[in-house]
């Protein structure tokens, strides 16, 4: 038995083979394929063995790494501190970690220092409110699944902040005087939906603006006229799903573009045409298939089924992206970090969601992750808890 038989990824027939002088882009692709092949070969039998090893999900090391990094903040991420909370808390939740009451209170207290008097959250204490850390802070609080966390969110000032950055053409700026791009629309609508403050003033012309960003390739760019990108495509489809307008997207070209982003040899996804595989796109691209399914179910049409190779994606994540010390990395030669740990685990949860019996999950029962809400990227349990809490506020 060899890797070609055991795995759906790492097939020699899909490997790029160019003997003549090549471009830097192709040289990088060949280098990444070689690295992935080397990682797969590590599972092969040693001299005194006959069988290949199956990939192992290293839950204990992932827990230790993620929990240890929860309290760390490198200087270069000082404006992303709510993101560090979200990446850590969501990862730990996916790994079935139970937070102590003391730890929950510390996280709530810290994020409260990031909340602006004007509404929304900044990247750290005393920083201006910005849609990206606002999204991260609200989702981190929701992930804790406790009323203390959800009650800490000032919904009135949050709504005021969201209205202040909504533009007349339907787009959102990331902060006062800031740039327009698709992230702003998604972050604003996601927190408004979850906290039950979404109203007409926040969505005027927004569906039309989102659709204007769909490109000739089928994916979505950050703003009209820009290149299709995995992160922006997720944000666009997530926002349209929140608005109940996903039917406006041109699905055939979108599906073609999405499907072509899965790398045939590595099994993971890339973010754009002619780019390298990256663990984070396991979620950014993979979750969009689930969003399309949600729209098809709403329209009472057949769902996509297995529109991408979920097994190959699991192989890329478990074989090539797990750091031996815990955590996930972009690709084999890159360092681990909380960002790729969060979205690697989230992508793994998306891939596993296609196996309802949980009998065919790579890595076995030990690798099983809880289901996630593909719109918000928090666990389904966290979304249900938060939605129920904010619904009760509306009825008072």
Proportion of residues in helical segments: 40-55%
Number of helices: 17
- Written as H for each helix and E for each strand, in order along the chain, the element string is HHHHHHHHHHHHHHHEEHEEH
Largest sheet: 2 strands, antiparallel
- As laid out across the biggest beta sheet, the strand order is 1-2
Number of domains: 1
CATH architecture: Alpha/alpha barrel
Q: In one word, what is the shape? A: globular
Q: In CATH terms, what is the fold-level topology?
A: Glycosyltransferase
Please give a handful of descriptors for the protein shown.
single chain; two-stranded antiparallel sheet; mainly alpha; 4 strands; zinc ion binding; two-stranded antiparallel ribbon; Terpenoid_cyclase/PrenylTrfase; Glycosyltransferase
Question: What does the model show?
Answer:
With 396 residues, the chain is mainly alpha-helical. It has a single domain (38-395), classed as Glycosyltransferase. Helices cover 48% and strands 2% of the residues. It has 17 helices and four strands. The strands form two sheets. Strands 1-2 form a two-stranded antiparallel sheet. A two-stranded antiparallel sheet has the order 3-4.
Short description:
This protein has 396 residues and is an all-alpha fold.
List the helices and strands and how they pair.
Layout: H1 3-6, H2 24-41, H3 59-69, H4 81-94, H5 101-114, H6 131-143, H7 147-151, H8 155-165, H9 182-195, H10 206-211, H11 230-243, H12 251-260, H13 281-284, H14 286-298, H15 310-320, E1 328-329, E2 336-337, H16 338-352, E3 372-373, E4 378-379, H17 380-394
Antiparallel strand pairs: 1-2, 3-4
Helix pairs in contact: 3-4, 4-6, 4-16, 6-9, 9-11, 11-14, 15-16
């Amino acid at each position: 038995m060899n890797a070609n038989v055991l795995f759906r990824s790492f097939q020699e027939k899909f490997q790029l083979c160019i003997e003549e002088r090549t471009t830097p882009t192709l040289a990088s692709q060949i280098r990444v394929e070689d690295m992935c092949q080397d990682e797969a070969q590590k599972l092969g039998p040693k001299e005194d063995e006959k069988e290949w090893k199956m990939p192992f999900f290293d839950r204990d090391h992932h827990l230790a790494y993620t929990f240890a990094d929860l309290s760390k903040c490198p200087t270069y991420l000082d404006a992303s501190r709510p993101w560090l909370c979200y990446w850590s808390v969501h990862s730990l939740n996916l790994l079935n970690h139970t937070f102590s009451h003391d730890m929950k209170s510390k996280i709530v207290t810290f994020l409260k220092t990031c909340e602006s008097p004007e509404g929304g959250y900044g990247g750290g204490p005393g920083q201006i409110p910005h849609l990206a850390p606002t999204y991260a802070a609200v989702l981190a609080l929701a992930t804790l699944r406790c009323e203390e966390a959800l009650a800490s969110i000032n919904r009135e000032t949050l709504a005021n902040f969201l209205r202040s950055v909504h533009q007349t053409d339907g787009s959102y700026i990331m902060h006062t005087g800031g740039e327009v791009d698709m992230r702003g629309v998604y972050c604003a609508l996601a927190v408004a939906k979850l906290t039950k403050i979404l109203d007409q003033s926040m969505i005027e012309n927004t569906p039309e603006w989102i659709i204007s960003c769909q490109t000739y390739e089928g994916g979505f760019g950050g703003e009209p006229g820009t290149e299709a990108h995995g992160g922006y495509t997720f944000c666009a489809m997530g926002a349209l799903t929140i608005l109940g307008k996903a039917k406006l997207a041109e699905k055939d070209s979108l599906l073609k573009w999405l499907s072509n982003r899965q790398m045939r040899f590595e099994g993971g996804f890339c973010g754009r045409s002619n780019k390298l595989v990256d663990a984070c796109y396991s979620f950014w691209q993979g979750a969009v298939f689930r969003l399309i399914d949600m729209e098809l179910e709403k329209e009472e049409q057949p769902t996509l089924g297995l529109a991408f190779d979920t097994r190959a994606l699991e192989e890329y994540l478990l074989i090539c992206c797990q750091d031996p010390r815990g955590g996930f990395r972009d690709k084999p030669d890159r360092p681990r970090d909380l960002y790729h740990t969060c979205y690697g685990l989230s992508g793994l949860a998306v891939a596993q969601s296609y196996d309802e019996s949980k009998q065919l999950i790579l890595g076995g029962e030990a690798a099983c992750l809880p289901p996630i809400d593909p719109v918000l990227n928090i666990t389904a349990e966290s979304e249900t808890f938060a939605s129920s809490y904010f619904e009760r506020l509306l009825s008072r």
